[in-house]
Structure formats: structure tokens, C-alpha cells
Amino acid sequence: MTAPTAAPAWPADLTGETLLPFALWRVLHHVDGVRSVGEVAQLARVQPQDVPGAVAQAAAWASRAAQRTQPVTEASVQAVTACVIAVVGPMGEFMVDDVLDELGDGAPLSALLSGVAAQLGEAQVQAFVRQLRTRGLA
């Protein structure tokens, strides 16, 4: 099967400051909207069929990063609360409320997530992150 030769482009939400795994940056570093998939693959030293997947994964990472900078919404509060409750039980609701009270209005989702995570033990943080991932928040 031949890899497409069209020039891949950077995902819309991706910036130079977006944190990505090295394996993705290795490919995205060469994506400029002009180079073909084959050229990008050769420069990144990966297989041509790996380039579209790397671009798609980078788009997902960038989308999540952009989402975390958005202000906290009622929907995000409900999702985070559900994640915390799944990890610590009903007290999770109070934990989220306490963090929201500390943050005030207009806080970004990342601040809410960090504030809640700071109240959890290491194993609980890992479970919290797994819950967030299932809801597309991490």
C-alpha cells in the first residue's frame, strides 16, 4: 500500500509550546504544509505510513491542551466531579467545590484539575487521570 503524498499540515490547535511526546515532535518538526508525507517521513526517520498517525495524535494532544486553557464550565465541573467521585467516593463533590471556591470565577480547567489533584494521594492521582482520559479531559 502506498502512503499518500499530499503535504500534511499542522493541527489547528498545535503551537510550538504544546507539550508532545518526542516521537510526535520528531515528526511534527518537519511538517510545514509543503513537504510531502514521504519527505517528512524521510527527515523524521519514520515510515511514511506513520506520518498521518503522528499528525492525528498531535492534533488530539493539542486539542486537549487547548481545552485545559478554557474557563471552567458547568459541564466541565460535572465531568471533573464525576471523575473524583469515581476515585474517592462522595467526598469528591466537596473537594471540587472547595477548589472552585479557592479559584474564583474564570479559572481555567487546568487550575481546577491541578487543585483537585493536589488533594489526592499518588495512586488516587493516577486513577483520577485515567478517569479524566475516559472523558477526554486529559
Mean pLDDT metric: 88
| Global Rg | 19 Å
Helix content: 55-70%
Total count of helical runs of at least 4 residues: 7
Order of helices and strands: HHHHHHH
Q: Termini, distance in Å?
A: 34 Å
Percent of sequence in beta strands: under 5%
Number of strands: 0
Specify the biggest β-sheet: none
Domain module count: 2
Identify low-pLDDT runs: none
> What form results from the Cα inertia axes?
elongated
Structural class: mainly alpha
Structure description:
It contains 7 helices and no strands. The chain has helices spanning 22-28, 37-44, 50-69, 74-88, 91-103, 109-117, 122-134. With 138 residues, the chain is mostly helical.
Summary?
With 138 residues, the chain is an all-alpha fold. The chain contains 7 helices and no strands. The chain has helices at residues 22-28, 37-44, 50-69, 74-88, 91-103, 109-117, 122-134.
